[in-house]
Specification:
The chain is mainly alpha-helical and 222 residues long. The chain is built from twelve helices and no strands. It comes from Paenibacillus aquistagni.
Amino acid sequence: MATSAKVRRILDTLGEMFPDAHCELHHSNPFELTIAVLLSAQCTDETVNKVTANLFQKYKRPEDYLAVPLEELEQDIRRIGLYRNKAKNIQKLCQLVLDQYGGEIPQKHEQLTELPGVGRKTANVVVSNAFGVPAIAVDTHVERVSKRLGLANEEDSVLEVEKKLMRKVPRDEWTLTHHRLIFFGRYHCKAQSPQCEVCPLLDICKFGKKRMKSAPSRKNGK
């Protein structure tokens, strides 16, 4: 179990390693961010940014996405995984935003999660990055790192990980911690090749210590 001192050390270390961690999805307003996060499900931010570079030039408002046939929108995002389903959700989302919110992305979490294709993680990203509301969105990086560092249990669901992080991390640090956990998982504590040998948190990471103990036997081919 992570003590308050351990949590503080983790947060401070992440802050030292990634002081400028931020949302890497390119966007210029809440609407573009919502579309980008919707597209990012089971897809890298890098690929999403390549697609939205042209997409956001062509489609500026919800009306623009509804002005083209579904097939045309599908072709515009076909490099994205699950592009057909995402294209449908984008058009449904745009229609709902126009019908219920005057063409503006709603600011409340419960309203966001009612939009097609917008789950809890997407809503957390939008409220925190677009509207400045503290939130922790648990993606694959946040989940992996939280479990490796003992901030959550291995068997915890995504929602349980989120709740534990919200309890352990000061509320005013939620959004920054979310970004730093992502950067730590994306660039340091990777899924397949974590940099345990140079990790400043190795001494409190059960996963890392176990992996490093087995390193010599792997090198010797045992």
